[in-house]
User: Fold this.
Amino acid sequence: MELQKEINSLQSGIIAHKTYLKETDYKAIKEAETGVAMLSEVKDERQFARDEINRLEYEVSMLEAQLKNKKEDEDEITE
Assistant:
């Protein structure tokens, strides 16, 4: 269960970063469509969010693999 709690926590982080990106998408679209530059701070924060999403998704995939292996091991023991 500890692995699942960690997975859930990481997924919450992913959701938070994706929410931030959605909330600031209009700024990126405005810049692309009108040429009005968005603040460099916002660009940096958006890049950070994307990087964190990638990192967290990788960690989740590793933990999910561990969880799967643990369940398979437990199933073998009970057979």
Notes: The chain has two helices and no strands. The radius of gyration is 19 Å. The longest helix spans residues 40-78. The mean pLDDT is 94.
